[in-house]
């Protein structure tokens, strides 16, 4: 409901106003609304240039080029892997009450689930602020590592609570809450826009749309299998579904993700080609 109310006050996108409506004045106003008064003219020129470049390349040609050209393929892979790290957040959010019912009665499990979602929500707000204060690479990798450690901590403490000492279940709950916080504070917000910062204007729309398409498919599959896997082998299911893939993704990103904050796209692409 809050999101719907907020949408009422949003301006139309500058690209739509400039290209589809052919209204430069409205596009200028919208650009100022979203990005302030800094270099609006040059940004609108970039939109026009991007549109002209996109018109020259068909989808099939652009897709083949994305696969063949090494730095474009790398940007595609980076985008997929960055989003794959956070794939578990949706399943865990949907199943949080079921997970907590392993420790508490139904009412307490609902409260714990509520705390998890509130913490995640607040962290997302903070994350959108601090993502502009710290370098993308450091914030994404550090929060991704913390995110994966928290999910691993949930598994470890859950098993220790079952076999060793029941009160360790509270550490398992805390681990899940911290998992939501580390998602919102860095890796969550950045993963959704990092692809746009490592691709040229000409190929940005195609590569980003393909990244989201793969992520949607991955999320759909994981959403289908998580609950059956959890019912089958319990918390161990999070190891092959989320933890091990996240570790592999982090390793790849560590060696291949360039810093993007405050840098020109030409410099970023040079780094992409060298790595």
Automatic annotation (TrEMBL):
Keywords from the UniProt entry: Membrane, Transmembrane, Transmembrane helix
Pfam families reported in the protein's UniProt record: Sugar_tr
Keyword Transmembrane helix: yes
Entry-linked SUPFAM superfamilies: MFS general substrate transporter
GO CC field: membrane
InterPro entries: GLUT (IPR045263), MFS_dom (IPR020846), MFS_sugar_transport-like (IPR005828), MFS_trans_sf (IPR036259)
PROSITE patterns: MFS
Primary localisation category: membrane
One Gene Ontology molecular-function label: hexose transmembrane transporter activity
Annotated transmembrane regions: 75-96, 108-131, 138-157, 169-194, 206-227, 233-255
Locations listed in the record: Membrane
Boundaries of every Major facilitator superfamily (MFS) profile domain copy: 63-275
Domain of life, per lineage: Eukaryota
Topology versus the membrane: Multi-pass membrane protein
Protein name in the entry: Major facilitator superfamily (MFS) profile domain-containing protein
């Amino acid at each position: 409901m809050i999101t719907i109310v907020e949408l009422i006050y949003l301006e139309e996108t500058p690209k739509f106003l400039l290209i589809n409506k052919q209204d430069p004045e409205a596009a200028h106003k919208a650009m100022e609304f979203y990005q302030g008064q800094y270099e609006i003219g040059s940004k609108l020129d970039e939109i026009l240039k991007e549109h002209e470049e996109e018109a020259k390349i068909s989808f099939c040609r652009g897709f083949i080029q994305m696969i063949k050209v090494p730095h474009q393929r790398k940007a595609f892979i980076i985008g997929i892997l960055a989003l794959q790290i956070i794939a578990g957040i949706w399943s865990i959010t949907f199943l949080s009450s079921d997970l907590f019912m392993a420790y508490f009665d139904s009412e307490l499990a609902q409260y714990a689930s509520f705390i998890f979602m509130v913490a995640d929500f607040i962290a997302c707000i903070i994350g959108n602020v601090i993502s502009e204060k710290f370098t993308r690479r450091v914030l994404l990798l550090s929060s991704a590592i913390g995110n994966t450690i928290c999910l691993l901590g949930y598994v470890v403490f859950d098993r220790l609570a079952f076999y060793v000492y029941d009160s360790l279940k509270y550490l398992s709950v805390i681990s899940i809450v911290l998992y939501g916080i580390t998602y919102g504070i860095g890796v969550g917000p950045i993963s959704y826009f990092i692809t746009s910062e490592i691709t040229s204007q000409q190929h940005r729309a195609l590569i980003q749309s393909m990244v989201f398409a793969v992520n949607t498919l991955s999320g759909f599959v994981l959403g289908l299998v998580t609950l059956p896997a959890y019912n089958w082998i319990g918390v161990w299911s999070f190891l092959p579904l989320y933890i091990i893939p996240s570790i592999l993704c982090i390793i790849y990103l560590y060696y291949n993700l360039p810093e993007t904050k405050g840098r020109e796209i030409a410099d970023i692409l040079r780094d992409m080609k060298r790595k």
